[in-house]
Amino acid sequence: MILSKLHLENFKKYTSYDIEFGEGLVGIIGKNGSGKSTIFDAILFALYGEAKKRGNKDILRNANASDKDAVVVELEFEFESLEYKVVREFRGKAMSANAKFFKNGELTTTGAKEVTAAIVNLTKMSKDAFMHTLFASQKELTSLSTLKNEDRKKMIRKLLGLEKIDFVEKELVEKSRALKNEIDAFREVLLGVDEIKAKQEQIKASVEKNNALKKDEQNKTKELVTLKDKEQSIKKELDVFTKTKEQKQKLFSDLKLLTNSKSLEMLNQAKLIAENHELEHKKEELASLASVKKEYLSLQEDLKTQELLKEYHLKRVGLTKEQVQLREQYTKSKADIHVLEKECEMFEQYSFDAKNMEQDLSIRQDDIEVKHTIEQELLLEMKAEQRIIDETNAKIANIKELGQGSACPTCTRPLLEEYDNVINSLNEIVQGTHQKKIDTHNTQLKNVQEQKAKLVEQKKEKDKEYLELTKKLNIIVSKQNDLSRAKEHFTLVEQKGMKNKEELKALEQFSYDETLHAKVRKEYDELTPKYKHAVSLETELKRLDAVKKDLEKVTAHIEELKKKHQDKEQEYNKVLYDEDAHKQKLTQHDEALKTVDAQTTTLNDIKVAIASIVGEIKTIQNSLDNNDTQLKKVQTKKDDLRDYEKIKTSLAEFKTKLNAKVAPRISSLASEMYSQITKGKYQHIEVSNDFDFFIYDEGKKYPIERFSGGEIDLANLVLRIAISKTLTELSGASSIGFLAFDEVFGSQDEARRMEILEAFHTIKEQYRQIFLISHEMEIKEMFERVVEL
């Protein structure tokens, strides 16, 4: 893997940044806090979707970016002669993750988890393996020689991934112990040989008893079948008696129903004869009232005519009164319209003034908003500058707390004579740059706030003038509405007067006589009772024909019922039924049922006994079967325990072989580089299987602690490079073509730095890219390519 380009948007301290990585020895140079380490945080985030330290996603977003601004990281790299590009994004307030993966410009994978899986599949390295293999810091290098033996072994085993084997080995021990406990627990519940034999004998005795009961059950079943046959025979005879009795009872009910029907029809016949006689009498009475109906209808027409003439008379009187009122309203409406038209004359002028004033107020409001925007921008800039001052002051306080003899938290070099320079430099940044900007912004802010306050006051005065003008305009608008309604009312009054005049002219042709009207009404009222009685008689006589027809039907139906009654009576007398014989047969059937029930009870008792014995046999057999099952489980667990022991043995052998392979390989790689860096002064670095380090000086082996600080730093460097090389070989990631080191120069003098750089130039043949991160600005000329931050 060779890194080509990196693009950042709103990622940590970078708002927007692009970098192109060249090949060879590349220096990432910048002052403390310039964002050097952030570059490789972004590379790790692009590949695996996570920064070096896991935490809240919000810390990835630039402090000046809003929730709407996306966090974007794009990384282009070459792998096995193919071009790849990975894009990671966090969007929205919830920081929703998205990712895309391109191969030779073609989109192949989308989705955050899917892209991570594709990267792991391509490089054959997880995030942790990638970090341990390709990244190293000064703290990590120093730890190789300064940690206690056990701690150093743990660190190296973690780098090499051997702690996973230790974890598996521990798990195997725990599993084996648990299996042994389970096997011991099973022995407590398993049946002994004597218990098994006793249960088998018990099953045999129960089977013999069960066979005897089944034989008895067969005999009792045959007897029960004979008893049931006898009971069924008696039941058939009893059914004949029951059917005969039911037939006799049904015929009696039918005969009684016919008698009742005949009686009801005879009563209905008498009622219809009386009604027919009464209707004939009313028919004669109606004939005598024939002239009344004709006279009543004539009076009714005369009365309608008089009522219509009265209506016309009353309408003419009403219209005459209404015309007087309309004349008064016409005069008043005309005067009101004249007054309202005078009051609305200033509407056009007020409307023109209001529009001009609205435009003026809008312009003033725009000016106020512009001043407000400038005010907010100045406050934000002052806040940003103050945050930088606070961060710088915190650094100053931290350095003062560490003291002159303490190591720099970034490069581990003692501050010593640089202590005052560093403090003064930081104070100068605070006072000379950021505080001066705050003071300038503060002066600008006061001017803007004064201008804004003056504009607001002027706008308030204009608002008052506009309010007064609006009130006058609203009054005129109200008067205009009144004028419109007054004109509408005037038109309606005028139209109503014309219409009434026409109607009065049309009503002049009609004449109304109140005395004549009263006379016709009196004659009509006197004749009405007779007319109503005649109408009532007509209504009643409509039933005469229907009554005569019903009388004929009822008479015929009575004759029919008499005939049916005679036939049903003869049929009833022919049915023969002996009630005493029926009762005797019922007694015989009850006795037969009791005998069958007794035999059934006996047979059920035998079946219950058989079921009980079968249950006992099943329970005992289940106990034996369960014992066999538990024996098989115990055997399975014994087999598992044996397998675990074999795996533990194999794993121990694998660890021994791996240690025997890894330690010599690290030693070989480290020795070759260390000899070259020291120009042959030290020929060999030995790494034991327990990861203790020794340096050979003139053929003798010495612990690494015996040598000077610079020599130890060089040894730590070549050992860490050798570990990375070995990790790459073990993981099979042969196409990873770069290494990255963070602040590895430490306390080296210029000559040692040159030696270290020469060593990096030597291994450049194996790694096409080597990145060195440093805050030492004076060494930037030593690199083939420099990225200065």
UniProtKB/TrEMBL annotation:
Keyword Amino-acid biosynthesis: no
Keywords from the named record: Coiled coil
GO biological process, one term: double-strand break repair
Domain Rad50/SbcC-type AAA per the UniProt entry, residue ranges: 5-238
Residues of the signal peptide: none
InterPro entries, alphabetized: P-loop_NTPase, Rad50/SbcC_AAA
Coiled coil regions in record: 196-230, 269-309, 438-472, 534-578
Membrane-spanning segments: none
Full protein name: Protein containing SMC domain
